[in-house]
Fold this protein.
Amino acid sequence: MKPIIKFRLSLLFLLLVSQSITSESKCNKTCDLALASYYIRPGTTLANISKVMQSNVVSKAEDISIYNIYTILSVDSVQVYTRLNVPFPCDCINDEFLGHTFLYKLRHGDSYASIATTTFGNLVTEEWIERVNVYPRTYVPDSVMINVTVNCSCGNGEVSKDYGLFITYPLRPDDTLESIAKYTKVKGELLQRYNPGVNFSQGRGLVYIPGKDENGVYVPLPSRKAGFTFKLTRELAILMTIYFCHLARSLVAAGICIRGVCMVLLLAICIYVRYFRKKNGEEESKLPPEDSMSPSTKDGICTTFVLKFLA
């Protein structure tokens, strides 16, 4: 291979690797679950909350009560002017921020303001609802479905690794840093570090505070291996194949057995694919049922192919 061609191919390879890294989500981390602190007003029932905040983790009142074992004595009645923790999925939305989008069907008399302050208990703002919908706040037709996106947090390992489940907590006029620290039994200094620059006494806005799971305990931040997140794109996989083939040819020209070179490359690719599939859990979620194979079958294909190649 001519040096200039080899240089261009190597440069293109590095550029695609860089693109695979930099095109990753802007969300620093993701988690499966978050909690929303819902303020109970007169007339609110647990059944209504479960309908408003319905998701793949909440379909009935009992799904909420298990996260409030010390405050809910019966699913048929809840104490007004208190807070309940409602579980909801914490997703990376549009690869931009952490949150979850609920679908809400408008009723006559609803407005973005009433939905934000009353229906969703200040977990969102009127401006935020308008931003994630096509209808302006001045004209919202009855009976249409709108998006209500609630933000969430997955924690921060640089602050503490002791907390991995977080509550999206709307501040109220009677809240202070000291009162929330007493409520959570988490040091105020730590709460402030999770919410830098936020005045906990401002009476409005959101903060993110550690929450307890269904067993009533704080869960630690899941351990993560050091290093960046790598995404093997289709384009990168194709280019890697071309690159390795040319590399093999160069090694052969240097007097190295092509069969040995290709065997090593094939083994490396098999190990690479197996590692990243296991890490990202993509084989079960992305393949249709008819194409799915057990991990042992996939490993067997790689091994069989290598053995036949060497025969």
Notes: The longest strand covers residues 97-105.
